[in-house]
Structure prediction request, 240 residues.
Amino acid sequence: VIEHIKKPCTFIFDRGYDANKYIKKVEQLKQSFILRLTERRNLYHKGKLMKATTLRDSRKGKIKMRIMFQKEIKDCYVTHLNVKTSASKKEMRLVLVYGLGETPMMLLTNKTIHSKEDAIKVVNLYMSRWRIEDYFRFKKQTFGFEDFRVRSLQSINNLNQLLSYSIGFIALLTEKMDKKLLAIKVLERANGIRKKLVFYYSQMAKGIHKILSHAKTGIKEYLNIRRKVPYKQVQFNFEC
Prediction:
């Protein structure tokens, strides 16, 4: 897939991709990346090779920002510095995020950072990947996506496509949901405990399920189905 991407984009990598081969590959494609580092990573800073954790523990965040983390809005502090890796001689940026957990987050990126807004943007871009995790969790828990009754790859792809259409409809409902009467009514039917959420898909699906559960005759009550008049054969009577 990566070889077919022609436009500039930013690849977001979790700690499982902290390897030089991925950094080299993205650099060869002349694309941007943001990679969360593991504690095993070594970096060059001011010509000296040292552990990334040493750089992390010797600094404090200077830029204050608010971010949604684990379904809560938290204050955190960010700082950044120039580093190099053994995978590339190009100068990169190490973005350190303090306050989101017991261990500060270490993000390596080849994106340029000239201001505090640039540093905040890098953090927000990385945190956006959690939306993907929420999407797949919703897909599995709400629709039982892994509980297949089919076995062929084509059948699984067909189910995935139909399910993606359904989730796309739910996503459209959640856009500007405070201004859409239909979305408001669906959420009311869900009767969720938590009223303020970031990811409303589960409550939307629950509300739709409760509304449609009252249907006893399928879609017949929702659609004006035109019934065809039985075909009548033309008859001619001849008299001699």
Residues 153-174 form the longest helix (22 residues). The helical segments are 20-28, 52-57, 116-127, 129-143, 153-174, 181-190, 201-212.
